[in-house]
Amino acid sequence: MKGIQILMYHQVGDFPEMASHRATYCDHRRFATQMAWLKLGGYQVLRMEEALKCLRGDAPMPPRGVVLTFDDAYENFYEYAFPILQKHGFPATVYAISSLLGQSASWLAADGHATPPLMSAARLRQLHSAGIEIGSHSASHVRLAEQGTEHIREEVTRSKKELEDALGARVDHFCYPYGSHDIRAVEAVAEAGYQSGTTCERAWATPEDDPLTLPRKAVSWGDSLVGVWWKMHFKNISKRPPVRRQTA
Ligand SMILES: [Zn+2]
Predict the structure, then answer these.
(1) How far is the CA of 141 from the centre of ligand 1 (A)?
(2) Which of 6, 39, 42, 126 is most deeply packed, by most CB within 10 A?
(3) b/e for 98-123, b at 16 or more Cβ within 10 A?
(4) Which CATH number fits domain 4-234: 3.20.20.370, 3.40.50.300, 3.30.70.1290, 3.90.180.10?
């Protein structure tokens, strides 16, 4: 592999068959199979901070490095994904929405989804102590590229502070809601002091990537093990050229 595979999950659980919106659901049995396969295949599951070291050249690039990311911090992460991750000793990065801790995924109602519960601050602290990395997914889950610059800054900086207060620990990683980002959003993430930012561009992360616009691959409802393997090894298609910061 040419870099690190950052996989993107949303909800993991027991869901009815679905015809649409499949990208943000993963059946827990499939998830268990995927994790067992990563273990058997000798993949090295990294924390985001470890992946950053490899991408920066501060640590050797593992031949099969993977980062597991979970957007929105659903309670079903704790219920279904966490026990499976623990069984394998795998770390993960969970991105929480700071103003919605312990509430529900209310933004999903607009698209006709159910609005499942989101993890509370106490739950996030529990996971953080168990080695799960907690990152920010903004303060209120808005499309950043569609907001005014001041609002972007507020979403990015306020969520960092609120999550750091809730956890009593640094929050170094950001994930753009809906993958929506532009140069203003990327610069706001840089100014706020985050070390990484993840998008929904479908590629593996390489040392050439800006750490604040790292691509990811979504694992969705319809993905069999072969589908995940194929996505990891062959699907490498960014939808658009990366947002480039002026670097000093
Ligand atoms: Zn989200």
Answers:
(1) 6
(2) 6
(3) bebbeeebebbeeeebeeebbbbbeb
(4) 3.20.20.370
Task: Specify the DSSP element, H or E, that contains 55.
Answer: helix 48-56
Cα 48 to middle of ligand 1, angstroms:
18
Residues with CB under 5 A from ligand 1 (ion): 71-72, 177
What is the per-residue pLDDT across 52-68, written as a single tens digit (0 to 9) for each?
999 999 999 999 999 99
Ligand 1 centroid to residue 100 C-alpha, Å: 12
The pTM for the full model equals 0.93
Q: Is the pLDDT of residue 92 over 70?
A: yes
Q: How far is the CA of 60 from the centre of ligand 1 (A)?
A: 31
Locate the DSSP E strands across the chain: 4-9, 11-13, 25-27, 44-45, 65-71, 93-96, 133-136, 173-175, 196-198, 217-218
**71 C-alpha vs ligand 1 centroid, how far in Å?**
5
pLDDT tens sequence across 94-137: 999 999 999 999 999 988 888 999 999 999 999 999 999 999 99
Per-domain boundaries in the chain: 4-234
Distance (angstroms) between ligand 1 centre and the Cα of 22 equals 14
- At 247 the pLDDT is 63
